[in-house]
Amino acid sequence: METQKPHSEFGLPASENYTITVDVPGHENDPDDLWKDSRVFVNIGPTHPAMHGALRMCARLNGETIEKSYCEFGYTHRAKEKLGENRTYHNFIVYTDRLNYCSALTNNVTYAMAVERLMGIQVPDRAVWIRMICTEMARVIDHLICVGVNALDLGAFSFFLYGFHQREEAYTLIEKICGARLTTSYTRIGGLMADAPAGWEKEVKDWVVRTRKTVQEMDKLLTNNRIWCDRTQGVGVFTKEQCMAYSYTGPNARAAGINRDLRRDDPTMFYKQVEFDVPVGKNGDVFDRYMVRMNEIYQSLNIIAQCADKMRPGAIWVEDKRVRIPEKDVVHNTMEGLIHHFKFFMQGFDVPAGEAYTAFEATNGELAFYIVSKGGPRAHRMRIRGPSVWHYQGLSEMTEGLKIADMVAALGSINIIAGELDR
Amino acid sequence: MRGTDIRTPVSTIYGDFTQKHAERWKLQVEALQKKFAGAIEEVRWPGTYPTEVPIIYVAKESIVDVLRELKEGADFQYDFLADITATDEEIEPRFEVVYNLSSFSSDSRIRVKARACDGEDVPTATSLWKGANWAEREVFDMFGVKFRGHPDLRRILMDERWQGYPLRKDYPLRGYQLFPDTQPIHTELLKD
Q: How far is B82 from chain A (nearest CA, A)?
């Protein structure tokens, strides 16, 4: 701890008790030290356009280089896990939208799967196929946003708009099945809120064709771009070992060469019946994460097309009295239906005692709901394992020795979603 | 109607996880019980208890040794820490710290739990996985379970000046604690 001279020596008003104290780490003989003892402490965030939500990084800088840093979050903490213990299982569906708001449908589906697993429910085939289309569509949207915003942070604006157009079209398709664009709340325990309208599959397939073409254009626009390559290759490297130590999953881990995808290795829904490849990178830098995401978009589009082909008309609800929401004409025209309706929404359904950790390969990695039930309509513990928490934890180590501008590239490439991070 | 309990084997669209790994888990738990005879308090099996993977209750003093064996032992290879969390059971020993582990080589999962009374601390797993750091901080933040040997045990989601542990069952659902300014930079964390 050194005490610097009072401001009066620099021509500022003198004040008897006014001194600035700065913690200066000793770096006497450091050749990189532009000015002797020039280390400054900088708050990057919490509210800063480059920080993708309310994330805060406190860094010690030498010139522009981050020498050491630590990260903080929690500025948008909304007590989701506490709410999960104090809302019925049905009520909690809307809260899952607000986890990863870029791919709300994936959260809906994973949550519904977690509760259905505790209850031993198997939803009908059509519902599963629609859910698969939803999760893959959410994956495409989320990846388009991630690579788009990552490029936007580095100055490539039009690339972002190419993706954004297809994203809006995808939201229009999502609006057709559930009436909402961003916060969908589409799944129900044991089924779906509503069936897909007639001809929806065909529109989805048309969208797949158009999006594939757009992504090919985006690929041509950016992948071999000299500036993009210089800014991303070898930047923000996170090796396989580091990924394992920090529990990285999803595209960020695959970019480092970890060949793991829960859709293939621990298949849920009907992922065994569709064909897809798992793109795996090698270097674990920003460029590889970008390439893995771009390739995953192609794979997801293929999965969507296959699902749309295999989808057949049929029921979207399991005929299980515990979870089936009664049809509106039954509610309005029969006494039993009305009672059932009130009991369902006012009291909720009981989930048998038990516990299960249900993981699914969400867009960013392993999204899991660890639900402990002691019977009754509310969970005893509703743990949400969001991949962003684990990814954000590695950011300090990833960006050590990088310039601030490269830190922005690294942060964009690991796709931290504040809603999922803070819960 | 289908089974109403996850004890009932149901061929669900969520995989045949429990049947697929039953043999492996049996061998692994036997090996663990042989090696850590006194430390394994209880094992709950999917067939008899409503869970999808075996739950191994370990005495909290040996939790790091057991986790290390699970991570590095040739027969186990649960090298991926999926999650650390806790539950509040309301009767002493009140807290159960839950470690969800996953194996990439066998696609298997397992769950380890350590019981702790209110005010007791649990050894930290940060020596095994660096990523355990924030997960343990979150357990401390939300439940007040302290981790012995943790490098930086501060609150993580709540403000550092916050009083109380929100995910405890006796924590009130409404209330305010207002702070006029943000948390300062901890310069001591930024030294070499």
A: 7
**For residue A26, what pLDDT band results from cuts at 50, 70 and 90?**
very low
What's phi and psi for B100, nearest 5 deg?
-100, 115
Chain B nearest-CA distance from A108, in A, is: 15
**Of the ranges A382-396, B5-19, B44-58, which is most confident?**
A382-396
Residue of B83, B141, B145, B176 to mutate, interface with A, max A Cβ within 10 Å: B83
Residue A132 with chain B: CB contacts under 8 Å: none
Q: DSSP character for A17?
A: T
Q: How far apart are CA B129 and CA B136, in angstroms?
A: 11
Listed by start position, the domains of chain B span 17-169
Average pLDDT over every residue of A412-421: 88
* Closest CA of chain A from B133, distance in Å: 9
Tell which of B12, B95, B137, B157 to mutate to test the A interface (max A CBs under 10 Å). Answer: B157
Q: What is the DSSP letter of A347?
A: I
Of A230, A303, A227, residue with least CA distance to A261? A303
- Contact between chains at A43 and B51 (C-beta distance less than 8 A): no
CB atoms within 10 A of CB B162: 13
Report the DSSP beta bridge partners of residue B115: B96
* Residue A49, pLDDT score: 77
Q: Report the phi/psi class of residue A74: left, alpha or beta, with left for phi > 0 and alpha for psi in -120 to 50.
A: left
Q: What is the mean pLDDT of chain A?
A: 85
pLDDT score, position A38: 67
Fold classification of B17-169 is Beta Polymerase; domain 2 (3.30.460)
A69: which 2 tokens? 């840093």
Whether B82 and A116 lie within 8 Å, measured CB to CB: no
> In this structure, are residues B16 and A320 in contact, taking their beta carbons and an 8 Å threshold?
no
ipTM: 0.88
Taking each helix axis from N to C end, the angle separating A125-153 and A404-413, rounded to the nearest 10 degrees, works out to 170
